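Onboarding guide, step 5: your first structure request.
Type a short instruction followed by the sequence, for example:

Predict the 3D structure of this protein.
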Amino acid sequence: MSVKKLKDNLPKLKRAMESFAKREVLVGIPSDETGNERHDATITNAQIGFINEFGAPEKNIPPRPFLIPGVRAIWNDAQKRLAKGAEKILKLNGDPIGIEEKALEGAGLMAQNSVVQTINNGIEPALKESTIAARQRKGFAGEKPLIVTGALKQSITYVVKQIDD
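The system replies with structure tokens like these:
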């Protein structure tokens, strides 16, 4: 009878899964990043995004949600991507931290792209005729909400953050 000594990978596995569980993907428009300011408005992209996501009745701006619906549209696929990452970590097949990063970054990129696509597809309610006319006077012929300069879409991003205990 022979005895084979196996390597104890349990501590490595435990560290990897704990690390994975203590990180989150945040998608949106950062308010504290450079590049968030605009040259065509007195407010930031984050403020413009908030106003459009939830509306501003006092300024007669209806809600035009794009962020939450954009993330919801890929929610199941993002969960599957994260689950596959966790499965690979459990199999100890490769570098657990690299696998974790790839899964989290992939989910973030999926969400970012989906939010931008939500804007590109057009958001209800449609623009008022007066808004379309004002756009045309400024030389912009588009009729989709949230699309004029592209600055708002370009500001949509994601970050992978450590969750504070």
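Each response can be followed by summary notes, for example: The radius of gyration is 22 Å.
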